[in-house]
Amino acid sequence: MMHFDVIVPFGTSCMCSDILREQGLQMYSYPFDWVGGGTLETRTNILVNDFKDWLNYDDLVQIEPLDNLKTRKFKDFLNVKTCMTFRHHFSVDKNSPNFIEDYSTVKEKYTRRAERLKHQIQQSDNVLMITIETPNRYKIKHVQELLLAHNMLAKKFSMTNIQLLYIKHSDNKNMKCSNVYNNIQMIDRFYTNDPSSNYDIALLVHNIFQAYDIRLSQKFCR
Questions:
Q1: Is 153 among the domain residues?
Q2: Are the CB atoms for 80 and 67 separated by under 8 Å?
Q3: What does the pLDDT look like over 183-222, one tens digit per residue?
Q4: What is the residue-averaged pLDDT of the chain?
Q5: Secondary structure of 100-158 in the HEC alphabet?
Q6: 86 in a domain, yes or no?
Q7: Is residue 171 helix, strand or coil?
Q8: Reported confidence tier of residue 1, pLDDT bands at 50, 70, 90
Q9: Over the stretch 167-184, which tens digit does the pLDDT of each residue have?
């Protein structure tokens, strides 16, 4: 049995947080829950540098929605420095006179989430950072990227045992599990986001967590 005080959705889209919430493995909101894109190195740098400058006003550029035919509540933005997308946050266009107020509200909310995440990691004994690759986005090219990310996190949170679980999308329909290094595991397999498929990513994550008996501790239970 593996108990973690915090299981952190670490990208690359809201899919990761959605799955953890559905399985009762995420009790709080964290900064990367609804943010897409960015490399593993980018997200790691943001966290170890205390989220400094990651949501700067001048770096946000409004972009086209993924589906122009669908009416959406939110406007779509790209951070040009981090290449991360914000599609569930801003309710008005950037040229709107109400955008400054909207931006301030989002910034305040994400400052709270960032402080919560850092505090919980610092107060934890064991933390699992899970990344699920989005098929059409950046993929790691080499396991050295995982080693670099883990070294940065372990140095930043030296009193906490940090483990990384990286689920890599591939054409391989037979799951391959690799213990990359101490506290780093990579799962390599084909998957979709279709609940009716045998390759549904939510089912895959559920089976992985069951196989390793991964659970949340009671430390931050509400």
A1: yes
A2: no
A3: 999 999 999 988 889 899 999 999 999 998 999 999 998 7
A4: 93
A5: HHHHHHHHHHHHHHHHHHHHHHHCCCEEEEEEECCCCCCCCCCCHHHHHHHHHHHHHCC
A6: no
A7: coil
A8: low
A9: 999 998 999 998 888 899
- DSSP secondary structure of 3-40: EESEEEE-SSSHHHHHHHHHTT---S--TTTTEEE--H
Domain of 28 in residue numbering reads as 2-52+114-216
C-alpha–C-alpha distance, residues 32 and 29, integer Å: 9
11/212 Cα distance (integer angstroms)? 21
Buried b (16+ CB within 10 A) or exposed e, 135-165: eebbebeeeebbeebbebbeebbeebebbbb
Q: Is position 12 within any domain?
A: yes
Two tokens at 12?
């690359």
Name the percent of the chain lying above pLDDT 90.
82
Say how far apart CA 138 and CA 145 lie, in whole Å: 12
Residue 53, Cα to own-chain centre: how many angstroms?
18
- Say how far apart CA 128 and CA 199 lie, in whole Å: 23
Give the HSE-up count for residue 92: Cα atoms under 13 Å, Cβ half-sphere.
Answer: 13
CA–CA–CA angle 20, 137, 131 (5° rounding): 30
Residue keyed to tokens 């290094």 = 181
Residue with tokens 């589906």: 67
Instruction: Tell me the three state secondary structure of residue 180.
Output: strand
Using CB atoms within 10 A of its CB, is residue 83 exposed (0-12), middle (13-18) or buried (19+)? middle
74 falls within a domain: no
C-beta separation of 180 from 147 below 8 A: yes
